[in-house]
Amino acid sequence: MLNLVILGAGNVATHLARAFLNAENLKLLQVYNRHPEPLASFKEIAATTTDISALKKADIYIIAIKDDVIPDVADKIPWQDGIMAHTSGSISIDALKKFKNRGVFYPLQTFSKERKIDFMEIPLCIEGNSKRNFQLLSDLGRQISNKIYAIDSQQRKSLHLSAVFVNNFSNHLYTLAAGICEEQKLPFEILKPLIKETAAKIEELPPRQAQTGPALRHDQKTIAAHLKMLKLAEEKIYSLLTQSIQKIHGEKL
Amino acid sequence: MLNLVILGAGNVATHLARAFLNAENLKLLQVYNRHPEPLASFKEIAATTTDISALKKADIYIIAIKDDVIPDVADKIPWQDGIMAHTSGSISIDALKKFKNRGVFYPLQTFSKERKIDFMEIPLCIEGNSKRNFQLLSDLGRQISNKIYAIDSQQRKSLHLSAVFVNNFSNHLYTLAAGICEEQKLPFEILKPLIKETAAKIEELPPRQAQTGPALRHDQKTIAAHLKMLKLAEEKIYSLLTQSIQKIHGEKL
Fold first, then answer.
1. In whole angstroms, what is the distance from residue B61 CA to residue B98 CA?
2. B250 touches chain A (CB under 8 A)
3. Cβ contacts of residue B48 below 8 Å, gap of 6+?
4. DSSP readout, B63-130?
5. Residues with Cβ within 8 Å of residue A169, at least 6 apart in sequence
């Protein structure tokens, strides 16, 4: 049985707590958060505290807080027992170097409070400052996910950057498309099956092979017509992505 | 019972033919294609021909060929009976103006030969040059899809442009992310759950509300670190999309 404490009460903390609750060999002892309000939803499943000096003894502490407050909170944690692991994609394991046992427990997924998600399918990127700590964090991970990866801090930064492309930027393209639809009084609804199929295709085809469209075909007539329809900001994005597609996929055959 | 002829033998023609085959009140009489090879896979389900002057009499002719050959093929179709409808997102209904009865039958989806797809979920964008022709094409559409939309040529152009953003450009972002992963010897596999969840989220949240990430948070430290990791072409795309997110979502609160 592993005893756990979570620091933080945001989206990642919420989803992790739910996943821990469903695992058999884990006990979530306590959830810490600086502000009391977000702790309300945790009260039924664990002890809660807003006093960092009142942290309980546990095997593993999961620090699921915003990147920029990690050093600050790490500073205030009063003792050195147990493994301290943060959940950030872009912060090095070294941010926790004051702790003898440290690691990273980064779930590569986008979380919203409203949406339930099958944690078993979420890739967990694990790093530890020793074989033992890596092993313990992996054991913890395997209780809530089928997808455990050993990822060092350098690789994790690249993964986080990749995640910005496939999540933040793709979602922004959906927003721009929604804007174009709105102008023509078209329901955004109509694009949803295409959005879902575009993402689903990667299961069968590498994205490079799945590429289609006027840029790939060097269809200058359609590209010119599209550019004319766009406002300056969107026009620049269209041009740059078109160039990038043509650069990566090479010359027209 | 509606009698149909398909002109073309590519991805759209293939998926349409399969869908027509499963419908009760449709009969696919014939498939025409200029080259004989692609017709092979249609031989079991309909008559085929490479001779455009040998088109059979039908109620509706679906012209599912590449945009730039539509005018050419339209020119060669020898008679005026039946409704002529093309399946293109970017070509006006006027490309078929030599025909008394004309329309558009545009399935808004990305098709690959390898992937089966539930046609019932594909939005069909219908246009007709008369109420009767619109009605007949809609009746045809309803036999193979639950999602029938009345879309005029102007709106359809905007939809097609939106589709480039959510499909071609999103897929290209996946390709760029795959490249970043490859450089760090990370399996692209690890990004797949995130890609799928990003797309799935639009069912519950408008993309504007689903936006997250360093650009939205005006997290300059992470943005600067990301830009440093990228090559020039990707750096430009990162900057431009970051600016666009910040422009659309307004100032940091």
1. 14
2. no
3. B30, B31, B32, B33, B39, B42
4. E-S-GGGHHHHHHH-----SEEEE--SSS-GGGGTTSSSEEEEEE-S---SS----GGGS-EEEEESS
5. B173, B237, B238, B241
Bridge partners, residue B60, by sequence: B4, B83
User: Coil, strand or helix: which one is A26?
Assistant: strand
Which helix (DSSP H) or strand (DSSP E) does residue A101 occupy?
Answer: none
Among residues B202, B214, B222, B188, which one has the least CA distance to residue A171?
A: B202
**Residue B7, min C-alpha distance to chain A (Å):** 21
Strands B2-7 and B26-32: parallel
pTM over 0.90: yes
- Phi and psi torsions of B214, nearest 5°: -60, -35
What is the rounded distance in angstroms from the CA atom of residue A148 to the CA atom of residue A122?
A: 9
pLDDT band at B81 (very low <50, low <70, confident <90, very high): confident
**In whole angstroms, what is the distance from residue B138 CA to residue B124 CA?**
9
Which among B159, B169, B178 has CB closest to A173? B169
Q: What are residue A150's DSSP bridge partners?
A: A126
| Contact between chains at B191 and A158 (C-beta distance less than 8 A) | no
CA–CA separation, B87 and B179 (whole Å): 34
Mind listing the pLDDT tens digit for each residue in B140-149? 999 999 999 9
Give the tens place of pLDDT for each residue, B126-176.
Answer: 999 999 999 999 999 999 999 999 999 999 999 999 999 999 999 999 999
Show the low-confidence residues of chain A (pLDDT under 70): 80, 251-253
Element (H, E) at A151: none
Window 1-40 of B, Cβ < 8 Å to A: none
- In this predicted structure, the answer to whether residue B233 has a pLDDT above a threshold of 80 is yes
